[in-house]
Amino acid sequence: MTQPETKTAETTNSNDDYVVGVDIGGTKILAAVIDAEGTIKSQSKTGTKAKQEVDQVIDRIARCIRRAIKRSGLETSQVRAIGMGCAGTLDPDTGLVILAVNLGWSNVPLRAKLEERMGIPTFIDNDVNVGTLGEAVLGAGKGVKDLVGIFVGTGIGGGIILDGQLFHGANKLAGEVGHMIVKAGGPRCGCGNRGCLEAVASRTAITRQLRKAILKEGKKSILPKLNGGNLDMIRGGALAKAVTRGDKLTTKIMRRTEKYLGMGIASIVNFLSPQMIVLGGGVIEAMGSEFIDAVHKVTLKYALPNTMNDFQIVKAKLGDEAVIMGGSVLARRMLEKEPLEEKIDEA
Amino acid sequence: MTQPETKTAETTNSNDDYVVGVDIGGTKILAAVIDAEGTIKSQSKTGTKAKQEVDQVIDRIARCIRRAIKRSGLETSQVRAIGMGCAGTLDPDTGLVILAVNLGWSNVPLRAKLEERMGIPTFIDNDVNVGTLGEAVLGAGKGVKDLVGIFVGTGIGGGIILDGQLFHGANKLAGEVGHMIVKAGGPRCGCGNRGCLEAVASRTAITRQLRKAILKEGKKSILPKLNGGNLDMIRGGALAKAVTRGDKLTTKIMRRTEKYLGMGIASIVNFLSPQMIVLGGGVIEAMGSEFIDAVHKVTLKYALPNTMNDFQIVKAKLGDEAVIMGGSVLARRMLEKEPLEEKIDEA
Fold first, then answer.
1. Which chain A residues touch B170 with a CB distance below 8 Å?
2. Which of A165, A208, B183, B341 gives 20 to 30 Å between its CA and that of B30?
């Protein structure tokens, strides 16, 4: 076959240019073989079983990757690199996971342990950063240089892309949108403080408000029925259905959620003036574009004049594949910075 | 005299390497001739008289610059460039002042009008951005790559330096720290919204709280006496004196101000993870290092673990000279980007 003469790592379309993207979360591991155009050739999924020993969990990650490669029909030696997004606080330069509460890990040299098992150059970053990179390069933010990804689920995470690159900041922890304070003295957050965006606009915050209104104040709502008869951690789908069916309590709480999200985004717009916010995560996926439009209106109200020119708030496109897709981008970009030859020399 | 063989625009020490830095505010204009080491050779100050016609005010700016040059003993032709910081919303690329409420200007091509009068390459940026650049290169932030400048006075302004450069964002309006929302539903801000940092921690916010407590609630305080018998816009010096003398009301309100500033900074730390915050402006200058230490403690409480490693909050060093010093840095940097020859070709 003939190949195009000019090519870059991100646009090459060649049958032998594959990397693996991996998403390591507290409950599941997802691995996929992805080509240079961002097309998934094969994937594999497994439970994390985070309660097992660290090395056992890392063995599971390696097995999941090998299975995805096998399904693609490739040999492991044909995979150029692995790019992983991992929940928690980590150092992308050293590949050390400093603290991952969901995994029960502290100071785990994930990159080194995976490279040892797989013999392939491996790169890691925080899962929300990697998801944001995926959206920026292969998803909703294609062609946008400066954007912020905000993912609203059980918590609220974020990632910053400046000049097309992930921005990590001095302590490599930039992007913690969920812990920007929007309501001083407000509800207690999982981080121990009060009034964080996560404490007023995450699924956890929504659940807390619904539980209080229904269980303590006796407010009526069809929500418990839609959520499988309980109010433990309310699914996005149940929220969306309750609003669609005109449930007053849920609608009121979701209006409040829109307001806080809009304020948080306005803080970002006034401070950083990005071109775009990509909104993703379970709550956003379920609530859809009307919810995003409402958030946009609140942002417009709280943003300073002229900060919203050509500014967009868009829904994430990649869904559950954001991290594996972003992992493939991370792998390719890092390969460009760190040529394979050097990695082989080291080995 | 002999000159060092290797030199850059910022470190050259030569008797014929001068630029002019200018600070254009709503009440005064300050211009200074500054050498390559950031030493002020001469300066000149004049009232802005913002109520005059735009062209008259710009004539005043030009006269102020000429007077500063004359005082330095140089000829105008010996000045390589002019760098100006101007209050308001402006486009540094086109040199257009879009809106400057304090000056009563909208859509004023300040750069072009000044170049026409002076015949010297001229560069402009927002005054707080320019002040932050001054602190980053010649003041408290020397050697720091990523920092945020926060200036607490009548309002709260800010500037962002990333990788040693001013960061403007998509709409060139980045850095509006004062309009990050920290207290949803809180006091009304000058911008029309509620709960902005400026609405809870600026001199305006402090004055509002003191007026309410003293005039409406009849609380006792030595503050009015220290502020010249009135409570119109309370000076930083009066606040500092009242706290030093143990005035309970003022102390309580300043503790609250520390709290909100610390929360605002924690939001920035969690979101952007800068290396340093430079705190300046009238309130900070007057209150001094104990106040900054208290703000630091609040930030530490609200920042996520590991975000504060090697992170510093420092007091601005350049005081009223931050904008003229930053103007000199702006002028030198823009000259490097836009060689003088091109400017002459255009003329």
1. 146, 273-275, 310-311
2. B341
Q: How confident is the model over A1-51, as pLDDT tens digits?
A: 344 444 444 444 456 799 999 999 999 999 999 999 999 999 999 999 999
What angle in degrees, to the nearest 10, is found between the helix axes of A248-272 and B248-272?
90
DSSP state of A213: I
Interface check B154 vs A, CB under 8 A: no
Touching check for A340 and chain B: CB below 8 Å? no
CATH classification of B141-316 is 3.30.565.10, yes or no? no
Give Cα A278 distance to the centre of its chain. 11
Residues 33-62 of A with CB under 8 A from B: none
* B171 → closest Cβ in A89, A271, A273: A273
Q: What is the ipTM of this complex?
A: 0.92
CA distance B109 to B91: 10
User: Does B155 contact A at CB distance below 8 Å?
Assistant: no
What's the topology of domain B18-132+321-346?
Nucleotidyltransferase; domain 5 (3.30.420)
Query: Do B141-316 and B18-132+321-346 have the same topology in CATH?
Result: yes
Q: Do B180 and A177 touch (CB under 8 A)?
A: no
- Out of 2.40.50.100, 3.40.630.30, 3.20.20.70, 3.30.420.40, the CATH code matching A142-316 is 3.30.420.40
- Partner residues linked to B106 by β-bridges: B99
Smallest Cβ–Cβ distance between A270 and the set B180, B274, B307 belongs to B180
Domain ranges of chain A: 18-132+321-346, 142-316
pTM of the model: 0.92
pLDDT value, residue A341: 52
| Helix spans in B43-126 (H) | 54-72, 110-118
- Compute the distance between CA of residue B1 and CA of residue A340 in angstroms, rounded to an integer: 52
Closest-approach residue (CA) in chain A for B190: A304
